[in-house]
Structure formats: C-alpha cells, structure tokens
Amino acid sequence: MKIVSSFYKFMIAVGLLAAVSCDSLDEINDNPNGISPSSANPNLLLPAVMRQTALNINSLGYGILAGTVQHTQHDGWFTGHNQYEWGLQDWNGWYDILRNNRFLMERAEATGLDFHKGIALTMKSFAFGTITDLWGDAPYTMALRGDQPGVENEFPAYDSQEIIYDGIINDLKAAAQIFSSGRNTGIIPQYDLYFGGNAQRWHKFANSLLLRYYMRLQAKKPDFARAGIEEVFRTGVFLTAADEDVTMNFIGASQADSWPSATDFDAGSGFRRIKPTTTLINRMLEIEDPRVPIWFRPVHCRWVEDPTLTTAIDPFIRENGVILNGRVSFSDADYVQRIAAGNVYTRHYNPALLGRQLDTGRYVGIPPALENPSAHNLNPTEGQQLENQHVSQLSDRYRGRSGGILRARIISAAEVHFILAEAAQRGWNVGNAQTHYNNAVRLSLETWGVGSSYSEYIARPGVAYNGSLAQIIEQKWIASWTTASESWFDFRRTGLPALVPGEAAAEPVLPVRFTYGNNEINFNANNVNAAIGRLEVTFAAGRGANNQWSKPWLIQGTGKPW
C-alpha cells in the first residue's frame, strides 16, 4: 500500500471529516458545508475506519502489551508497562471506530455496494473482536444505538464473550461470501488503505481472521474451533505469502500519522526509554535469530571483564581502548555519531572486586519488572529521560517517522501458518504441522527482510521442529514483535511461553484482561456491574472483581494460563 501522494493525504483528510460519530449526525444534517448522511459516498468513510483501526492495534502491540508479554521494558515511566500496574481502561477509541463503521455499513446497504458492506463486516468483526479479547463481555447486540430512543439503547446491556465471538465469526463468513464473488463494484482504490480495492486480498483477510478467532475458542469450544479451522483450511483462501501481510504504512507528515517513537516529535526520550526484555532478546541470541539486528541496536558501551583491573570498575569509559578521563558517558546523539564514525566504546570491570557479574554482551536487555530498570547493568546515568549506555536500544529504524519496517501490522501470513501448525499439532485435519511451522518461520523472516537466513536458521537446535506446542507458540511469540496483543491472547489461552513476572510486578502472575473503564462505571453502572459479576475473581480479589487478573468467560474453567 502506498500513501505518499498529496492526493492520498487529501483522501484521508476527507475520510476523517466524513466519518463523524453517528451521535453527531443531526448536527450536520442541515449544514450546507457538511456531508449529508443521506448522500455520503461510502468510499469517503473507508480511510477513517481503516486508519484508526491500524493505529489502535499498533499502539497496543508496540505499547503496553509489548511489556506484558516481555518483548520490551521501559526504563522511564515504567510501572504500567513493566509491572502491570494498570488503571481503568476505557474502550472509547474502539467504539468510535464502530460508530463510523456503522455509518459505512448503512451507506453501503443504501447504495447497494456489497463490496463496501463486506469491508464493513470485516472491520466490525476486527473491532468487536479486539474489544472482547481485551475486556471480556461487552455491549454488542445493543451497542451503537445511542441515537435511538429508549433506555435499553442509551444504556446498552453487555453480551457474553460467547455471543460476541459467535457474531464475529458469522459476520466474517458473510464478508468472505461477498468477497468470493471477486467483484468490487463502486470502490475507489485510493480510499482502501489496505488493499486498494482488491477483493481477493479482502477475502484472504476475512478468512485469516476466521482462523484467528476459531483458534481463540480452542480451549473453550474445541469441537467448534476445530470444525471452523478445518473448513477455512479446505478453501485454501488465506494469507500464504509475506507480501500479503495486512499492514498500513505511516505517512510521516505529523506526529499523528508517524511511527509512535519517531524522535522528530519527542526529542528522542520516548524512543530511548524502550528497551528489549531479557526474556526475548536472550532467547533470540541463544538460537542466533537473524531478526536481532533488525529490531535491536548493540549497546553503546560494552562491559569488558578484566581480572587484572585494580578497581572494581573503570571510573570512565574507554574510546578504542583509551580511557577518556572525566567522561562517564555521552548523550545518545553523540554516541550514535561517534559509533557511526568507527569508534568503539568499552568499560572494564573486575568481577572479583565488584562481587557480581555484569552483562558483557553486545546486545543486552532489561529483566522484566525491576524496581529501578534505568540502573540495570550498572548504568552511570540513571534517570527517566537519560539513556543507558550498557543496555541495547531498539534499532535506529524505530527512530523514524515512516517507511521500511515501520508499519501497523494487523495480521500476517506467519501468524496464519502458526495457527495451522498448532491445529495440526493438535491432530486437526489441516495438513502437516512441521510444514506449517516451517512456513510460518520462513514467512516471518521474509517479513523482516532476513529470508535468506531461513535454511540455516530452521536447522538450528531450538528452532528445528520438535513436535511440541511450546515450540510453535515460542516462535509465534517471537514473530509477534510489534503485534504483541496476539502473544498475550495466546499466553492466556495456553500458558505459553511460560512467562514469569519480575521482582517488582504488581502480582506474581501476568494479567489476563483490561479493566472496565470510568465511562462505563459512571454512566452504565447496572450493565457493567452485571458483567463484572460474571468474571471469575482470582487471588487478586483484594483489588475488587474488576481487575486485570479476574478471568473472563474465555478462560474460565480451562486452568489457563495459571
């Protein structure tokens, strides 16, 4: 997808102006300068729905859920990201998308544009799927009716997760049926930010989401999940190539349409505080994963173990082996410039005198949920906004605004084949587990530009298929980099990978849901309290039932993840 021309930016702006909340439609009905709800072209509504969906899911997968599944840690402003100290979480951003999407659906039906209806069904399924994945029970059948009279519309009841997942699956089946015709009547390709109006690509997307949501139900409704996955597999219509990954590029014209950690907009502190977690990077280093240098940068200054040193540590850093008297560190910008010029920075230490080991690796992560992560590996410049020269940052690619690997990733061919590998490993009729596993690994490497390393990588101990579910989920967890929400949902369902919180975590186990937010508690109390009453309260009962460790229907009675 290319969104680089001024015309395309204009299209997005028009879409954003057009895709107003359904609750506000009365305000523009008589506005000669507005777009009339009775005559709006459905194409105008596509960019807002698709763009905001991609931004929201990227924010989760690169943000707080990357901390949850121990992909990243923050060494500044870290309690939520690292330690699971989450506040109440409102879902307004997702229901805003759904209100705009309802308008899209209405206009598609009114104009007889089935292709647009299929898109609306798919995007509705994705948004409601994310809501129930994150929170549990939620308004579904009675949602989005606030513009209609009646208390039941103003204060919508919550549906069970089971009803929501069933509805999602039915809508995706209906969308797939529409797309199977191959017709895309009425589409203006520039408005379709994902596929440029390609019906086959939408068909593969809808079926791939079906695979995702059927597998979500594996532990709770195994027969239903198996039958659904086998049915989709028989069609052969799902993502099979890395260039079919469903992604959205960033324009990079402003902070709102750029990669979240772009240093042009926050002087770099947001980028600098994101570090790899030892859980992820150490495992990748053990299996010599070729994605390491794509995602992470070597430490600016490497520790060197030196038993001849007469002090516990060098008081200052060394440049090309020569001590720089008075210099304990450089700024991040200076380090980047000096290292690019060919300089090498080290600091020596004597473990016998120091009384402990430091991490001397070229790539170094931060353990999960430390009390003071900015001090890790004997950082001489602790603080919320300062860099840690002895811990890796993300690769410089993630400083940028747009381009290259900087994409909002919605679902990938690798994920699809990991799902099929798991299904086959469970004995379902979807082909060979090893074939799907190998394909999934290959597709992920291709996605990240290191496909040439596949043959060597897949033969390595720890990577070569051993028939276990744990291995499939581990590789899927690695491959979900920047899409960590899927790894969280897999962990919740399977208990894999066997992630253990760190020393300062809020509780000794990972959370399993978002808490219902203030808007619902303040304005829809009866219905949200009924939903809270259906949660299984765990050992964290002292926090009240509406906490991130209370189990929703999806995992109740499964014994997972803990």
TrEMBL record:
Signal peptide range in chain numbering: 1-18
Top-rank taxon: Bacteria
Keyword vocabulary terms for this entry: Signal
Pfam families linked: SusD-like_2 (PF12771)
Gene3D superfamilies to which the protein is assigned, alphabetical: 1.25.40.390
UniProt cross-references to InterPro entries, sorted A to Z: SusD-like_2, TPR-like_helical_dom_sf
The protein's name: SusD/RagB family nutrient-binding outer membrane lipoprotein
Lineage: Bacteria, Pseudomonadati, Bacteroidota, Cytophagia, Cytophagales
